Amino acid sequence: MLLVCTLSVIGVIFGVLASLCVALNAIFTKKTLPMVGDSIWRMTMYNNLNAVLLFLPLMLFTGELGTIPYSPNIVAPTFWLLMTLSGFFGFIMGYVTGWQIQATSALTHNISGTAKAAAQTVIAVGWWREVKPILWWLSNLVVLVGSAAYTWVQKRDMDKRFHENQGQETEKAEEIRKIKNSDENGIRLNGIHSAEQGLIKGKGINEESI
């Protein structure tokens, strides 16, 4: 009954839309990276420019442009210090996000981000000693166990590909060694043959002189 009373339909809708946008952002980041030469710096710059341009009409429609000049925080150094720090860390997060998507995949990025959020939530609840229902703990447990299972499967796949590549490199090294040995044997045989020809020619010259 408590779950039904506290469930917000609007909250669920916005939560699903937020998750959808996060997933689509990772997918489109992976697709558009080749268009910027696989440069994370360039991708981060474009994302920041898009954010600035998109926020301006939102600020206009919500009326924030008219209230900003009258805010007491607009001249407070602490406000601008915190804004600068948040912008810096936001830039770092955007760069690391693009880097992770480039190095792995959009799916891996989304799963790792979900696992990180669930782990941080559990740690925060334990730190502040909050009381949560059993379904809350069960949902976080499902996220963490599912993420761990995905990590385990990915590790097995990476180990398999690593051993396959290692075997191919060993075979290539063996082929190169055989070719090198055959070349050395050929050079050695050519040297012996040349020496024999030299001895024969020398013997013929000696016989003619006699």
UniProtKB/TrEMBL annotation:
GO cellular component terms, semicolon-separated: membrane
Major site of localization recorded for this protein: membrane
Source species, domain of life: Eukaryota
UniProt membrane topology term: Multi-pass membrane protein
Protein name from the UniProt record: Uncharacterized protein
Annotated transmembrane regions: 6-28, 49-68, 74-95, 134-153
Organism: Meloidogyne enterolobii (Root-knot nematode worm)
Assigned keywords, A-Z: Membrane, Transmembrane, Transmembrane helix
Subcellular location: Membrane
